[in-house]
Design goal:
The protein contains eleven helices and ten strands. It is an alpha+beta fold. The chain has two domains: 39 residues, Orthogonal Bundle (Helicase, Ruva Protein, domain 3); 151 residues, Elongation factor Ts, dimerisation domain (Tetrahydropterin Synthase, Chain A), CATH 3.30.479.20. The protein is elongated, with a radius of gyration of 22 Å.
């Protein structure tokens, strides 16, 4: 049956889920709003929608290469504790593998791709329901080149570099700005390392978890005081 805009709006108002998620649920339920809500509750879509507005500034940076293609991506969660969770890390790594294999650098396009028997977006919503935190694929970028280097430090900072000249081993060594000291020989600048090898940097991408996201400042003392006041103490 045809799904009307009125039905989509009603389901969206009742669940806070996205418009496309609501339309999909209604199609699968043949227009039965109550059944659509029940199915969304089982799949975790409702819980995911309710958590979507919460700040997710922790997480992990992933940098991967396959032949002449490299991917760098950021997948976020709310707390550093979840950033170390096995389920979260498995999801983030699999999502990165899917993006790299399909050469996708759009979060929207990635969300629609297959993830086992479901989609990346549905897998994300299911994980949100399981873990209880907002989880988002924040950004990703695909880079192509002959001499690629990819490096991640402690899961929080990632770099992908592409060199003109040199080789893949040199690209892996070039994971900091050219004005910085070469990590394997601090007496040498990265720029000199490149010059000596007859190479130059074509592309340099650096991502850090949570950069640019405004984090909520927690005032523990004020929170305790407010709790005691509410309890009449």
């Amino acid at each position: 049956m045809a799904i009307t805009a009125k039905q989509v709006k009603e389901l969206r108002d009742r669940t806070a889920a996205g418009m496309m998620d609501c339309k999909k649920a209604l199609v699968e339920a043949d227009g039965d709003i109550e059944l659509a809500i029940e199915n969304m509750r089982k799949s975790g879509a409702i819980k995911a929608a309710k958590k979507a507005g919460r700040v997710a500034a922790e997480g992990v940076i992933l940098a991967k290469t396959a032949g002449a293609v490299a991917l760098i991506a950021e997948v976020n969660c709310e707390t550093d504790f979840v950033a170390m969770d096995k389920s979260f890390l498995a999801f983030a790594n699999k999502v990165a593998d899917i993006a790299l294999a399909n050469k996708v650098d759009s979060v929207e396009a990635l969300s629609a791709l297959a993830y086992d028997e479901t989609t990346v977006e549905d897998a994300r919503a299911t994980l949100v329901a399981k873990i209880g935190e907002n989880i988002s694929i924040r950004r990703l970028q695909i880079v192509e080149g002959e001499n690629l280097g990819a490096y991640v430090h402690s899961g929080k900072i990632g770099v992908v570099s592409v060199l003109k000249g040199g080789d893949a081993d040199l690209a892996k060594d070039k994971v900091s700005l050219t004005g910085q000291a070469f990590v394997k020989d601090p007496s040498m600048k990265v720029a000199k390392l490149l010059k000596d090898a007859g190479a130059d940097v074509e592309t340099f991408i650096r991502l850090e978890v949570g950069e640019g996201i405004e984090k909520k400042e927690e005032d523990f003392a004020a929170e305790v005081a407010a709790t005691l006041a509410a309890a009449g103490q």
